[in-house]
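Entry 14. Structure prediction run on the chain below.
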Amino acid sequence: MLTNNKDWAWIGSMFNSDQWQPAFANAGLDFVTGDEDGMHQMRHLFASYMLTQGVSIKELAAYLGHTSEAFTLKTYVHLMPSSHQRARLAANLMFPPRATQAA
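Output returned:
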């Protein structure tokens, strides 16, 4: 578990005030209060990265502490990589297309 210098677990507000806001200031950026910047966005970054690495919704829900995989899917489905080509290949493996004869 990630802890601060007092060996306390980070919570969103502590992380924002102790780490995130100073990092923004050092970078010369304005910090926006609310969900636009901060720990909440770090969770989204983590979730999107995990999905691109092939982590399942069930695993991601557990990592994020969600009690429902359905909630995780509803929240992050737009970040899931989509591959119509992969779906077509899977269907072709299950139902191989017939070879066509040249006319």
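The radius of gyration is 21 Å.
Filed with the rest of this week's runs.
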